[in-house]
Amino acid sequence: MSAEQWLILVSGIVGGALRVGVPFLFVSLGECLTEKGGRINLGLEGVLVLSAMAAFGASYLSGSPWVGVLAAAAVGALLATLHGLLCALPRVNDIATGIALMLLGMGLAFYLGKPLIQPQAAQLPAIPLGFWSDAPAVRSALQINPLLPLGVLLALAMAWGFTHTRAGLLVRLAGDSAHAARALGYSVPGIRLAATAAGGCIAGLGGASLTLFYPGSWNEGISSGQGLIAVALVIFARWNPLRCVGAALLFGGAGAIGPALQSVGIGWGYHLFNTLPYALTLLILVLSCRPGQIVPGSPTELSSNR
Amino acid sequence: MRDALAAIALPTGAIVAALGVFGLIVSFAGVDPVAVWVLLFKGAFGDAFSWQNTLQRAAPLMLTALCVALPARAGLTVIGGEGALVLGGLACAALAHALPLPANAVGTVLVCAAGALAGGLWIALAGWLRQVRGINETISSLLLAYVAIGLFKHLVEGPLRDPASLNKPSTPALGEGLLIGTIAGSDVHWGLVVGTLACLLAGLWLRFTPSGFSVCVVGGNPRAAQLVGLPATRLIVLACALGGAAAGVAGAIEVAAVHTNANASLIAGYGYAGILVAFIARHQPLAIIPVAILFGGFGAAGSLLQRRLGLPDASVLLLQGIAFVLILASEALRERDWKPLLAALGRFGPSDPVPVVLGTPEAPKGEPR
């Protein structure tokens, strides 16, 4: 391989990480917040798909992509609220509810989104960070999604909020010891409902970046399980919002290796490279889990620790 | 008796309610809900043709539902059935391609056994990882499903690809003798019989054999299982392996009876629909049979809704989603008295501080089961 091909390959992977990583980032932040409150929401996959559809639809109807972003956040919060309400019922477990909401979200999105498959909606404007380079590969790789800085700021805010604000501490309290929260007179289901709804709102932004930036159109294969993978990502990030940023970018980069290799003419193992993020997570789990112990950093009330 | 009634009445009521909500949604689109209900019934169970279509779809659902139900009886939530199904189909096609098998029933049984082995090992791995490394099986089975699908695509488009398959990469077709035929006098393939038998055998196993009963004890009361010295790890891995084998056979049957080779059409979401079927059947293998037929019927009626009323093809997915949510919500009504439900509804406000006795005995968390 020549130096130019190497440049194309590296910028393809970096650019892919920045493009593909954004939905991962928002979904994992949303999942992180939900799980800090002591609940797992597999339904974020449904949230992601439905909010992606809502973002595209709202942007298409209003002509402004930012209206689409708001619509995605609102729809995400609504669907997650349903998850929170269902989980508060006696004898309803959060894993099953998550799967149900995944089906419901996808069903609603595909049903309502049928008329949106053909048209083009207004897209979010890219931030050109590659202005310093004259190599076209670098320039196109560094067309940044405007939601990415927002996501990084959100991660910083969450990390700070979990340790410095009353709300953040309450969420952690509900996730680590429901008894203690009850003893202080707080409503544990109420806190969890709020955390789940806010998590859905954040994950909705991930849906918006799918249809309004990259891939930038609405179709029924828009998500390849990012919402489900978020659960694994959060374990990988040890429930730390700042590590979620790194984990999401790593996942995005690992997923971009296949397409980047294809762009320099190496087609072998495209699908195998696409499974890298999943295989990597599994490997990390194998290395970081110990039988009879909970994963370090994990909220103790999670159903996966019971 | 009352419990048995509740177990049947609640899901039935939830499905009826789901049909109602679904009718409401389609009426917003200007479609007559009554016409939708009639078509759903007609398309699923209206005549011989629709029955055949329904039963055709029910076969893989029965087997993928077992992939959720059997581990669930051992206390595990496995949601990676799609991966086991895909690998089962791949193993079936690969074995038929690699070895000169006898072109008769023996060969067919062998390729299905290959599917069972591949799927069984895959899900058993998730159970083993949980017991030996403490990794949550819901997440690991899901990750394994994505790895399986990637592996499947890699092999079908690469080493195992039939050069003649141009626009749709697929493996070479199975030989004529290896294909699974239809039950005499119908268009339904023998997979339906396999699925029904598998559910019956699984039910009998859980109910009447020491190992099946031990699995239920391990799932129902891990502490009791520990006290009487049951080999929890072995039993859990066994339940996962049997469930995975069922999903693997589903994949092999889809290849040998429907597609004749392994290609991307195999990844059709049967694994995820199986989760729903198993939950509605409350992980009872015998109850899986009717529930799978019902959901096969919804699937069969879906294309009719599309053709006759112009509804999107995702209508059935939407109906399934609504049904699943309502069925879960109906679980809350299972109590003999309504106090817990009312308590749950009243729990969102701030409560008075309750004194917590220090050292409340709690179940120790994170212990290996």
Automatic annotation (TrEMBL), chain A:
The domain of life for this entry's organism is Bacteria
Q: Name one GO cellular component term.
A: plasma membrane
- A Pfam family matched in the record: BPD_transp_2
Q: CDD domains attached here? A: TM_PBP1_transp_TpRbsC_like
Which compartments is it annotated to reside in?
Answer: Cell membrane
Keywords (alphabetical) are: Cell membrane, Membrane, Transmembrane, Transmembrane helix
Cite a single GO MF annotation.
transmembrane transporter activity
Q: Which residues cross the membrane?
A: 6-30, 42-61, 67-88, 95-113, 147-169, 190-215, 221-237, 244-262
The membrane topology of this protein is: Multi-pass membrane protein
- In Swiss-Prot or TrEMBL terms, this protein is called ABC transporter permease
Q: Which organism is it from?
A: Hydrogenophaga crocea
Automatic annotation (TrEMBL), chain B:
Q: Tell where it localizes.
A: Cell membrane
Cite the entry's keywords alphabetically. Cell membrane, Membrane, Transmembrane, Transmembrane helix
User: Where is it found, in Gene Ontology cellular component terms?
Assistant: plasma membrane
Pfam families, alphabetically? BPD_transp_2 (PF02653)
Coarse class of the primary localization is membrane
Give the transmembrane ranges.
12-38, 83-99, 105-126, 188-206, 235-258, 264-281, 286-305
| Source organism superkingdom | Bacteria
Topology of the protein relative to the lipid bilayer: Multi-pass membrane protein
Q: Which residues form a coiled coil?
A: none
Is Iron one of the keywords UniProt gives this record? Answer: no
Q: Mind listing the GO molecular function terms for this protein?
A: transmembrane transporter activity
- The name this protein carries in UniProt is ABC transporter permease
